[in-house]
Automatic annotation (TrEMBL):
Protein name: TIGR00266 family protein
InterPro entries found in the cross-reference section: AIM24 (IPR002838), AIM24_sf (IPR036983), Trp_RNA-bd_attenuator-like_dom (IPR016031)
Protein origin, superkingdom: Archaea
NCBIfam families to which the protein is assigned, alphabetical: TIGR00266 family protein (TIGR00266)
Organism encoding this protein: Halocalculus aciditolerans
SUPFAM superfamilies: TRAP-like
Coiled-coil positions: none
Length: 230
């Protein structure tokens, strides 16, 4: 499955070329356009209970769009937030692989990739997003998106790297991680910094150059407040 990522890094659009028989599942609302030779069906992912779990716990769409190529054609996809898109091939070493994606960064995946919501304990408390991650496993193409540009960090065996939790897009399951608080309570309340994720290699980590939570914290105090007068 070939993909051309256009207009990056600020307003990326994934133009994906399908060959007959190719299939792709994408987040509801991600579709921009598709050729006549590509059929689209909207349905709950993995049945009602699986979709409900993914929607409630993983903060993802209840429904997904499934695209199937009846003949050669193109589908274009874009995320809700301005930013970049990265294509990653799972299982390129010959066997299935696992990728963890933070809530809101999943865009699409080949229809033979298994997608589930997995409990990660307190250590996966990503910027207030909750205790659950999206777990992608199998062999095929995965597309993840970001708010802002995407930076990639490849960690060697035993190498450590610390990332603000609001800037994490995805990471390979070969990398271990722990979530820690910066400083004490005073630092958390007054510095604007709270939780960080300390990764330990080997493995690849994808980061986003902007944080949605940080932007909202800057924007909300500047919005007009409702009048107290009736």
């Amino acid at each position: 499955m070939d993909a051309d990522i256009r207009h990056r890094p600020s307003f990326a659009l994934a133009a994906i070329t399908f060959e007959p028989g190719d299939g792709l599942r994408a987040e509801a609302g991600a579709m921009v356009s598709h050729d006549a030779g590509v059929a689209m069906e909207t349905a709950a992912q993995g049945g009602f209970l699986s979709s409900l779990k993914r929607s409630v716990l993983g903060d993802e769409s209840f429904f997904v769009n499934t695209f199937t190529a009846e003949e050669r054609g193109e589908v274009t996809l874009a995320p809700a937030l301005p930013g970049d898109i990265v294509q990653h091939e799972l299982g390129d070493g010959g066997g299935p692989e696992t990728l963890y994606v933070q809530s809101g960064s999943f865009l699409a995946a080949s229809d033979d990739i298994e997608l589930d919501t997995e409990f990660g304990g307190g250590r996966s408390f990503f910027g207030g997003e909750g205790l659950f991650l999206l777990r992608l496993e199998g062999a095929g193409d995965v597309f993840v998106s970001s708010y802002g540009a995407i930076d990639t960090v490849d960690l060697a065996e035993g190498e450590e790297y610390t990332v603000d939790t609001g800037h994490i897009v995805a990471f390979e399951d070969t990398a271990s991680f722990d979530v820690e608080r910066i400083g004490g309570l005073k630092s958390t309340l007054f510095s604007g910094e709270g939780l960080v994720c300390r990764f330990r290699g080997p493995g690849r980590v994808w980061l986003q150059t902007r944080s949605q939570e940080a932007f909202l914290n800057w924007l909300i105090p500047k919005l007009p407040q409702p009048s107290s007068q009736s």
